[in-house]
Amino acid sequence: MDPVRGGVFEVGPHTRRSEGPRPRGHAHAARVLRRPGDPLPHQCTSHRPACDFAPEFARLNDDILFGEVWNREALLPLKLRSIATVSALIGKGIVDGSLAYHLHSARNNGVTKHEMAEILTHIAFYAGWPNAWAAFKMAKEA
């Protein structure tokens, strides 16, 4: 069953929700956080061990972060949200799959190659050269 069209979401073995912001969260992720042709993402897919261990955390991630915060485009456009997210991840030294994911979504949200190069150059002086250097390698692939 397609989780968005079917309206049922499994967070953990004992949690089922059929209403609330999650459909918006999944619709948002499908629109801006996936590569064209990829299946509809569910945040727990790539973080299954954490979701099984902490289903409430997974629910908050899907419902609040992706269902509400990322959908407040009238307050801050997706392009700026992506820039802020990439900057925060690099600033924290998080240069793993989550950064690659958000670099790709930044491109989908309108951040150009030249803008990203300038953003990463700027970040290097505040977040650390090694962090930015790692991000450049990932941004090139996004």
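Next protein, fold it too.
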Amino acid sequence: MKTLAAAVTIAAVVATPFLVASPAGAASNPRTHYSLSYGTGEYTLKGNIIWYNRTVQIGASLKANEDNCAKARYKFWHGRRLVGQAERVVCSGTKGHGFRRQYDQRGGITEVTVDLLQQNGRRAWTYLTGTTCTRSGCR
């Protein structure tokens, strides 16, 4: 009986580091996926947002059809307050981009609006589609 109790105790001690080291980090830094498309795929914006304490990390791929341009527009929110904006452009092809945005206040960035726009020639940018993302997902 004492041997069985000792074996159970040893097994618990050996297994404990694996239980503690499991996905606690993954739960604290969620990843949100977004995918925007217009038409039959002439314009696309696909990517992820990784949510840290006061920072978000953006990684995406932006595509525009031949002889046209596409713009990815990101708006960063802290509650109802707009705290930053970033844009990336590609013309006649596909291009990846990645960057971080920080808001050094308690709670950090709480929401990211992701928009896809297009431009034909020298005309003004036209909004195509968009989504709003939080730590829980995009809608």
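About the second fold: The longest helix spans residues 2-20.
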